[in-house]
Here is the input.
Amino acid sequence: MLQQTVVATVEPYFARFVARFPDVATLAAADDDEVTALWSGLGYYARARNLRRAAEAIVSAHGGALPASEEALRALPGIGPYTAAAVAAIAFDARAFALDGNTMRVLARLTGERRPVDMPATRAALHARGLAEVPRRRAGDFNQAFMELGALVCTPRNPRCDGCPLAAGCRARAEGRAASLPRKRRKISSAWMPPVINSQSHLTPSPRALLHKSPRKPRLVRTPMMSRLGFNCRRYSAACASPSIIVRRACSP
Here is the structure.
């Protein structure tokens, strides 16, 4: 329930939910309509349906007991890497590291990570670094401390470096780059293609369409590459804006 929702909003919903479904077996025996009715107002109703499906899987495949391993938790409907790691560490003291926005930001600043954190390779490297720091005992406390550090001290804007217990070993702080990390990739708009300045047929950099400029008006020509990629010429419009031809994307292929 707390995913994408604040605690104050969740509290009354949680109380009603556990009163109606006090255990996994009761939840597994319910139907989607009954579960989503108690969820009404929280939004993201797929969470409620996945929760019931996960309860079914726990009853049928695990004898009604929540699996303790991170791998088994990830196999349950609606549970991704973060939730699986958090549950494994907090509920079962397993050596797992829950990588989310908060913990990733802390790690990126501690290590001075310059690569965009929304790249899979960077996330994998940060997860490996975090996992290496998890102690053999009290893994749950470690994960929760890391989450709170990111939420309350190592914040996205105006991080409170002076009050951070890890400040002495923070590379971003030492280099004066705490406020600029972590980095993310630039979002490139696909609303239009670069201008083509060429009196001859020219393959655009994207390479989606072949432009042919004639003395009368420009036109789009289907190419073998376009056919392979499934692009439809009728979905694009060409406009002459002398001395350039600008192709504007009309809709997705």
Summary: The longest helix spans residues 46-62.
